[in-house]
TrEMBL record:
It holds the Pfam family Iso_dh. The lineage of its organism: Bacteria, Bacillati, Chloroflexota, Anaerolineae, Anaerolineales. The keyword Oxidoreductase applies. Gene3D superfamilies: Isopropylmalate Dehydrogenase (3.40.718.10). NAD(+) binds at residues 76-89, 281-293. GO terms for biological process: L-leucine biosynthetic process. Belongs to the isocitrate and isopropylmalate dehydrogenases family. LeuB type 1 subfamily. The gene is leuB. PANTHER family: 3-ISOPROPYLMALATE DEHYDROGENASE. It comes from Leptolinea tardivitalis. The keyword rRNA-binding does not apply. Its EC number is 1.1.1.85. Binds 1 Mg(2+) or Mn(2+) ion per subunit. This is 3-isopropylmalate dehydrogenase.
């Protein structure tokens, strides 16, 4: 198969982990006889430095016309001025919106050999296997008005949480479809005791659920969900939620697996290229040291093969190689190991 893949390494450890994933994709290309064409584009702080904006129109167009997009991470202290007009993260939001990738799938699993890497007791981690389905192109991140203004000598800032019923319906429907192929349970997370958007969310969710009598629906308030994720994480199968709730809950859920560096994600729309990125950020504290955990990005590249290129065998091969490497104990420092990014990637390539 021939495919065009846009690489958006971004900032901090982004280029380090994307380079690792590209080595793995190139090995897959060779082993399974495919032809991947890689093209690099800028996003985030490096794009601001080069052109003044976090994502140029031409970079977005290149992504829109590719088969898939693999992203590292954006951001860092250099671009963190709270009064800056252009922020690296703005490029990422524009990319997600521009690709129409409304569904961000973030699976959380616990590898048996890494049970000790989590601060939770091993018995709490038994049976943990969930997918967080995060709404990605609406909610508090995109609602209008969004502004800062002076009112009577005081500074006023506004963000808006907004959803249309159809935006909720399509993401919840995707969660139910996913649950059908799993343990048939959907936990819809909201703040319906306070927020109007959440009350609409709950109403639409009930409506969608009626079409899936074989799947159990549970509604949970987000504060309770934050608590249950660490007190009883094995109860979750598919968890579906609003953009910002999903952002926060997935960082929390990453603690179950042992490190932020392990978690991949796939962002999908109804058509067009998918966007694949680890859930972690640019990790400025370890950037440039060559010690970043590449596994979240490598697993994201497996999702790219599975969802955008329909290469299931190849995706599974990467996942098996990652599992074997983790089991072998060749780990980066975030998981208590001594291996660097290259050594972990070499080990994955050895078993691929
Ligand atoms: N998708 C993205 O591009 C994305 C996601 C989250 C944060 N960010 C941005 O990243 C910057 C830094 O944010 P932060 O420090 O709060 O979060 P972060 O995820 O970058 O780092 C949090 C902690 O996890 C560690 N960590 C993260 N990824 C790792 C990896 N692959 N291997 C080993 N350790 C890893 C870091 O060293 C750090 O101690 C901010 O500008 C933020 O906006 C970007
Ligand atoms: C960098 C930021 C905009 C981003 C988000 O909040 O979506 C990140 O935290 C993530 O989880 O991908
Ligand atoms: Mg996040």
């Amino acid at each position: 198969m021939q495919a065009k893949i846009i690489l958006l390494p971004g900032d901090g450890i982004g280029p380090e982990v994307v380079a690792a994933a590209v080595r793995v994709l190139q090995a897959v290309e060779k082993k399974f006889g495919h032809s991947f064409h890689f093209e690099k584009q800028l996003i985030g702080g490096c794009s601001i430095d080069a052109s003044g904006v976090a994502l140029t129109d031409s970079a977005l167009k290149a992504c829109q016309s590719a088969d898939a997009v693999l992203l590292g991470a954006v951001g860092g202290p250099k671009w963190d001025d709270p009064l800056a007009k252009e922020r690296p993260e703005k490029g990422l939001l524009a990319l997600r919106k521009g690709l129409g990738v409304f569904a961000n799938l973030r699976p959380v699993k616990v590898y048996p050999s890494l049970v000790g890497a989590s601060p939770l007791r091993p018995e709490k981690l038994a049976g943990v296997d969930m997918v967080v389905v995060r709404e990605l192109t609406g909610g508090l991140y995109f609602g209008k008005p969004k502004c800062r203004e002076q009112i009577d000598g005081r500074t006023h800032a506004v963000d808006t949480m907004e959803y249309m019923d159809d935006e909720i319906r399509r993401i919840v429907d995707m969660a139910f479809q996913l649950a059908r192929g799993r343990r048939k349970k959907v936990t819809s997370v909201d703040k319906a005791n306070v927020l109007e958007t959440s009350r609409l969310w709950r109403q639409v969710t009930a409506d969608v659920a009626a079409g899936y009598p074989d799947v159990k629906l549970e509604n949970m308030l987000v504060d309770t969900a934050a608590m249950r994720l660490v007190s009883n994480p094995a109860e979750f199968d598919v968890l579906v939620t609003e953009n910002m709730f999903g952002d926060i809950l997935t960082d929390e859920a990453a603690v179950l697996s042992g490190s932020m560096g392990l978690l991949p994600s796939a962002s999908l729309g109804s058509d067009g290229p998918g966007l694949y990125e680890p859930i972690h950020g640019s990790a400025p504290d370890i950037a440039g040291k060559g010690i970043a955990n590449p596994i979240g990005t490598i697993l994201s590249s497996a999702f790219l093969l599975r969802y955008s290129l329909k290469l299931e065998k190849e995706a599974s091969a990467i996942e098996m190689a990652v599992e074997k490497t983790i089991a072998s104990g060749r780990l980066t420092a975030d998981l208590g190991g001594t291996a660097n990014t290259t050594e972990v990637t070499d080990s994955i390539l050895d078993v691929l």
